[in-house]
Fold:
Amino acid sequence: MDKKEKAGKILDILKKEFPGAKTYLAFSNPLELLIATILSAQATDERVNRTTPALFKRFKRAEDYAQAPVAEIEGYIRSINFFRNKAKSIKACCSKIAGGFGGRLPQTVEELIELPGVGRKTANIVLSGAFGVPALAVDTHVKRVSTRLGLAEKKDPDGIEEELTGIIPETRWGETSNLLILHGRKTCRARNPLCPECRVRAYCDYYSTAAGKG
Ligand code: SF4
Structure:
């Protein structure tokens, strides 16, 4: 079975396990998803979702963040890891959106990664989740799961994104991220993956070795 066919079968199985898979981050517009994604680095979605309602009530446009003192943004996100750096990133990023992009979030990876603190992963999450543009975000779960399954061999997220988008049709890029993230959290955990109960183990390279069965 080639990788394209294998990827299709894995995604079909995971889609049955996680119907309607989408990001758990709460947002009502593209800017909110961008801010929530920046906040979610090394923080749980639950924590971010508890924090953002007050933040989004106070700051509605990129200009609002751009004009606020960093200390005020910090005050709203203090319960999240690395809140000082994240507040700085949010302000810098929104200043660029307000200044360089006329207040509107750009809709291409190339433009989004021009924003301070925004890498390909964040850009792809926003494109796929908020704009419906085909994009495959590679986070730590996608990286680990796709490597174990044998769908990707490269070590860096950009390389893995290239490999996955080469074997998965673009209509499935968004759901691929969401499904692999959910599978990584629930079953294919970083330490002690729950292989015996994994629904895609028949297609998994890791499981087919002694490491997976031991
Ligand atoms: S069989 Fe194990 S290593 Fe392979 S995808 Fe499932 S949980 Fe992950």
User: Anything to note?
Assistant: Residues 3-21+136-213 form a domain with the Endonuclease Iii, domain 2 fold (CATH 1.10.1670.10). The chain has a mean pLDDT of 95.
